[in-house]
Amino acid sequence: MLKSTIILGIESSCDETSAAVLVDGKILANIIANQDVHKLYGGVVPELASRAHQQNIVPVVDAAIKKAGISKNDLSAVAFTRGPGLIGSLLVGTSFAKAFAMALDVPLIEVNHMQGHILAHFIDDASQQKPEFPFICLTVSGGHTQVVLVKNYFDMEILGETIDDAAGEAFDKAAKIMNLPYPGGPLIDKYAKEGNPLMFKFTKPQIPDLNFSFSGLKTQFINFINNESAKNADFVEQNKVDICASIQHTIIEILMDKLKKAVEKTGVSQIAIAGGVSANSGLRNRLMEEQTNLNWKVFIPKFEYCTDNAAMIAITGYYKFLQNEFAEQNTTPMARYKL
User: Fold this and answer.
1) For the chain, how many helices (H) and strands (E)?
2) With pLDDT > 90 as the criterion, what percentage of the chain qualifies?
3) What 3 state SS string does 256-280 have?
4) What does pTM read for this prediction?
């Protein structure tokens, strides 16, 4: 009887401390500790994030192992996020993973955070379908916006990416300007469901090829809110749902325009989304519309695998384990880490 491959995944790239246990492709535990302290500041404070990771890492790993019903001595390997992300946060996860793997005398596996988001689609879960190679993945988060041609688990080509700000950052900045509490992206999504997406017109930047830009849109939105608020101090509150619907509509249209160009360029019509913004209901609904209109085959991950989580690190670690692709104990985290 073949021995099961059991991977402990650790994710600490930003402000979620997460640990997951995966057995032969199936997730038995995926524990995530959020950091509420950042709500006081309207965004993630790196120093506070790293301190919270230090407090959370041991109890989160312990909870994941207990929930999975295994012993730490059953682990085949420890996988961790090497980058990209906040360097202080990454240091906590990397240091723990290295020490834990050394103490257990098991292999250490480093994972690119963005590769993890993409490979979350391959978690063995009955409620989600797995795409076939090749497919196009739109990865959208607070720090990244990319169109990636995924040829296999380890061969990925970036067809286009943001030249300045990310889509998730645009959502959060728009929410902050409207004085919505942090994190604001999900609140824009919530209010947008009740609003008219065509009420206010925002320009879409004309960026060549498959690259993105959101800095100009952010500037235009700031000026729009400031100008209208100068005329009517209650403008935002009186028009909140329509403002949210309009800015969300614009961001989604920017993403969809590039996705359509990528399909035309490659001839690949299997489309997946990944990253925190892939939890946005407006983006999900728009993709399902295009699946019908353009004859695409669309793959949308479970909500729990969209935001930062260790399950995606564990599944990537699993495929690297099968390839005997291990890291050395002298590996260091990288704030910038190209896919």
Assistant:
1) 10, 10
2) 83
3) HHHHHHHHHHHCCCEEEEECHHHHC
4) 0.94
Beta-ladder partners of 157 = 149
270 Cβ partners below 8 Å, 6+ apart? 131, 132, 134, 135, 136, 296, 297, 299
Q: How far apart are CA 165 and CA 160, in angstroms?
A: 13
Write out the two tokens for 36: 């509420």
Residue range 95-144, pLDDT digits in tens: 999 999 999 999 999 999 999 999 999 999 988 899 999 999 999 987 88
If DSSP codes are grouped into helix, strand and coil, which group holds residue 180?
A: coil
Report d(CA 272, CA 85) in Å as an integer. Answer: 23
- Distance of alpha carbon 190 from alpha carbon 168, whole angstroms: 15
| Pairing of the two strands 77-83 and 6-11 | parallel
Q: How many CB atoms lie within 10 A of CB 155?
A: 10
Q: Is 41's pLDDT higher than 80? A: no
Q: In what order do the strands lie in the sheet with 297-299?
A: 155-161, 145-152, 135-140, 270-274, 297-299
Please answer whether residues 182 and 38 qualify as being in contact, where contact means their C-beta atoms are separated by less than 8 angstroms: yes
> E strands within 173-283?
270-274
With beta carbons less than 8 A apart as the criterion, state whether 339 and 141 touch.
no
